[in-house]
Write a structure and sequence with these properties.
The protein is α/β, with parallel strands linked by helices and about 550 residues long. The chain has 19 helices and 24 strands.
């Protein structure tokens, strides 16, 4: 049975059960399995009338919604290859991806964005409004296309952190294997419960991890709630009250910063107890904890942490986090509150996942063991190599780059890592991000940036520079509209530099007053910093840092 067969069978079995819903204006808008089946049939009828042939590409450009899911399932059921795109990317980037994937049809929920894409690519395919698909009265209940494992199902574009985005071709075999792994891990988390999982989802479906998560939730006994307004995420989360949901580190770090800021503003005894409780929790050995710290931790466990946990979500069993490195301090912070943070590591090319934390045995700072059926090892420069049924079929129309990525029969992730005796992996950096000083010394920036972020919670984004220079320097943005005081930054640098070898000392900094964003071209669509773009944008400021005498 393929992943599509499993999903459609579940829709039939739960025809009268609400299993998918959106939050609109503080209320649930739900569909049953039968209603979602009818939406899929309606979309299939429209697509058949439109006429794309099996194996052709169809682009899907829209925020998450019930209709997005219905159309995605319909396109796959018709044997078409779905190209999901992010509505927050620029029209030029979107047109470039479409020119690369050459879709025969495109569906969009944003007429203004569609018009801008047409202006960038006048010879492109017809762009059909999403509403038009479901205004169609035609239906198709024909059997779904029977995918072979080798059949392409989707082309998902990489984030383009260090160059042009590439189309990653994932086939049915990749997805069949991955959904078996994700369902098994969620079964462990839910400990064999018979009630439907309650799941909240806000990350865009155009990202591989988010899309795999969505297919996983549809294939298991769950009620999936979709966020429709990121500005109301906190209120939507409380309404959905999920057992678990997928996160990116940025959100968890913002939640942590907001909790700490709120408590520090209260000041007095509350802040004092909280600060000492944190200090005690970070010292796992009882004999390392001062008596007062142990007392404060006991008080916080009884009177403070449960209230904070309830304010986030009283039913939450775990936060699942992926897409970028998560600061250890943030993971430990939520554990202190009584909320497990389970990490997942992978790339689009690995069908989103290589490793997943075991809910019954995980360690902060590590991303869990390899998923069943795949192999991982460390090569030269500590690069992580992977092979198995999760590895992509290749980059769309890029045979040379595909051959390079799969050299020797292993996928070269470009990430650096290490593995412990229990098979749990730690990702330590990205090869392309290595800073090479003019002395020849190589420095991974990510561990230093994470350590500094822990000392400067007011900082929003930190980027180290230093390639072909004599020392490291720092660019940073702030959560606060008032910015960061130079004295505060320098104190944090002095404290951290004292723990580092001389060649890792950060000897200058510049505060950027506008946060890096998708809109200003300094973040990728999934929130990763475009380091090369940052270096170009702030080349003048960086040059000034190296004209000053080092601190």
């Amino acid at each position: 049975m393929t992943f599509l067969d499993a999903i459609f069978r579940r829709l039939q079995e739960q025809a009268n059960v609400s299993l998918l819903r959106e939050i609109r204006d503080g209320e649930f808008v739900s569909v049953t399995g039968g209603e979602l089946s009818r939406l899929v049939g309606q979309a299939r009828g429209f697509v058949r009338a439109l006429g794309p042939k099996k194996g052709e590409r169809c682009a899907l450009l829209s925020p998450n919604s019930i209709r997005w899911i219905a159309l995605d399932l319909a396109l796959m059921a018709e044997g078409l290859i779905v190209v999901p795109l992010h509505s927050r990317q620029s029209p030029g980037e979107l047109a470039g991806m479409m020119k690369d994937s050459t879709p025969s049809a495109m569906f969009s929920s944003d007429e203004t964005l569609a018009a801008e894409i047409r202006s960038k690519w006048p010879d492109g395919p017809q762009i059909t409004p999403l509403d038009g698909v479901f205004a169609n009265q035609g239906m198709s209940d024909a059997p779904a296309y029977a995918h072979l494992d080798s059949d392409p199902v989707t082309i998902i574009y990489t984030s383009g952190t260090s160059g042009e985005p590439k189309g990653v071709v994932l086939n049915a075999g990749n997805i069949n294997h991955m959904l078996g792994c994700t369902n098994a891990r969620l079964d462990l988390l839910m400990a064999g419960g018979h009630q439907p999982d309650k799941v909240f989802h806000y990350t865009p479906f155009c990202f591989a991890a988010s899309w795999i998560a969505m297919l996983t939730f549809l294939s298991r006994n769950s009620v999936l709630t979709l966020s429709t307004d990121l500005t109301k995420l906190s209120a939507e989360l409380k309404l959905a009250s999920p057992d678990y949901f997928l996160n990116v580190p940025t959100l968890l770090e913002r939640v942590r910063a907001r909790i700490i800021e709120t408590i520090q503003k209260r000041g007095g005894l509350t802040a004092a107890i909280f600060n000492r409780a944190q200090r005690a929790f970070l010292k796992p050995e009882e004999n390392e904890r001062a008596v007062v710290d142990r007392l404060c931790l006991s008080i916080a466990n009884i009177a403070m942490f449960p209230k904070i946990r309830k304010n986030i979500d009283p039913n939450l069993k775990a936060l699942i986090c992926g897409s970028a490195p998560l600061a250890v301090e943030t993971q430990v912070f939520f554990m202190m509150l009584g909320i497990s943070v389970l990490q997942v590591y992978g790339l689009t090319e690995t069908t989103a996942i290589c490793t997943m934390d075991d809910p019954t045995d995980f360690e902060p700072g590590r991303v869990g063991p390899a998923i069943p059926g795949i192999e991982m090892r460390v090569a030269e420069n500590d690069e992580i190599l992977v092979r198995g049924p999760n590895i992509f079929a290749g980059y769309w129309q890029r045979p040379a780059e595909t051959a390079k990525a799969l050299e020797g029969g292993w996928f070269h992730t470009g990430d650096q890592g290490e593995v412990d005796g229990k098979g749990r992996w730690r990702v330590t950096g990205r090869l392309k991000n290595l800073l090479i000083l003019n002395s020849g010394l190589k420095i991974a920036p990510e561990p230093l940036e994470q350590a500094l972020a822990a000392r400067l919670p007011e900082a929003q984004q930190l980027v180290l520079v230093g390639t072909e220079r004599s020392h490291l320097a720092l660019l940073l943005t702030s959560h606060s509209t008032n910015g960061l005081a130079a004295e505060q930054i320098q104190a944090a640098l002095d404290e951290m530099n004292a723990t580092l070898p001389h060649y890792k000392h950060i000897r200058g900094f510049h505060v950027v007053h506008e946060p890096f964003s998708i809109e200003n071209g300094l973040l990728t669509a999934n929130g990763k910093i475009k380091r090369d773009a940052v270096a170009v944008r702030f080349s003048t400021e960086i040059e000034r840092l190296y004209q000053r005498p080092p601190a």
